[in-house]
Design the sequence.
């Protein structure tokens, strides 16, 4: 009997309204969460949204889903009669505490957002941040993974990567191969230029436009230094680089161009070396 009396008292003092509000809030949350998923699916089917990078879409889907669900919960709380100002204060304080505790992670998160939206590089690009270099394997929200030429996997925090100077070697379709070769001072300069130009122009992967540039750049202490500048597709860079090095040596040997090497001249004066 006491339990029935307590129930009657509860209902008589506004319990019906509270119970009705709770039911409405639960229904609202269920419908809101369902609509959140529908909104994400509708966006994924839209023409403009479909053109976005998969990493960006995944990030946006998560943010939209979380944001709408938080909004639904806040509205449901107001339906129950919870003061919105007090709830906002509690959420703000909790957010500040979490932010301080996860300061490094939030920095990486912000860096990941900047990388995904500004796209200084993408998956498959070869990059160098003056600390590590390699091919981008994955761009996550917090970390970017690259694979080095010797097949080592390196995970870089996005916070550091977004604030660093990053060289993207794959951003442009063409790259220039810069090489230097030396020849003895006795070498005929015009002959050396013709030989090197012929070798560069004969390579199948060297582009015709811009044409290869071959010039004498320095007169060093013991040799003449020549520069060879040849353009190629970015994907062919290392093939052209190694091929031209090998081909130049063979061409020099064939026409008798001497490649000097460091040497020390010793003069004997009165039996003593100078």
Sequence:
């Amino acid at each position: 009997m006491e339990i029935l009396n307590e129930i009657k008292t509860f209902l008589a003092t506004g319990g019906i309204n509270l119970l009705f509000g709770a039911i409405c809030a639960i229904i609202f949350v269920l419908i809101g969460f369902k609509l959140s998923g529908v909104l994400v699916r509708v966006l994924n089917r839209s023409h403009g949204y479909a053109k976005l990078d998969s990493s960006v879409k995944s990030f946006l889907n998560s943010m939209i889903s979380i944001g709408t669900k938080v909004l639904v919960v806040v509205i449901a709380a107001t339906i129950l009669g919870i003061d919105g100002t007090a709830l906002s204060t509690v959420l703000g304080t909790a957010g500040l505490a979490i932010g301080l505790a996860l300061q490094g992670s939030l920095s990486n998160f912000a860096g990941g957002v900047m990388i995904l939206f500004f796209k200084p590089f993408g998956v498959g690009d070869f990059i160098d941040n003056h600390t590590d270099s390699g091919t981008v394997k994955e761009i996550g929200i917090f970390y970017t993974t690259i694979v080095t030429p010797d097949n080592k996997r390196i995970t870089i925090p996005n916070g550091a990567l977004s604030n660093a100077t990053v060289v993207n070697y794959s951003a442009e379709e063409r790259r220039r191969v810069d090489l230097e070769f030396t020849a003895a001072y006795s070498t005929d300069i015009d002959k050396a230029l013709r030989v090197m130009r012929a070798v560069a122009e004969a390579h199948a992967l060297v582009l015709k436009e811009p044409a290869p540039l071959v010039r004498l750049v320095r007169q060093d202490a013991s040799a003449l230094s020549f520069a060879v500048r040849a353009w190629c597709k970015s994907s062919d860079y290392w093939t052209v680089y190694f091929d031209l090095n090998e081909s130049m040596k063979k061409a020099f040997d064939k026409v008798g161009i001497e490649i000097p090497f460091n040497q020390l001249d010793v003069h004997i004066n009165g039996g003593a070396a100078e």
Notes: The helical segments are 2-45, 47-50, 54-79, 84-101, 103-118, 158-163, 189-202, 237-255. The mean pLDDT is 82. The radius of gyration is 35 Å. Strands lie at 126-128, 133-139, 143-147, 153-157, 167-168, 174-183, 213-219, 224-233, 268-269, 272-273.
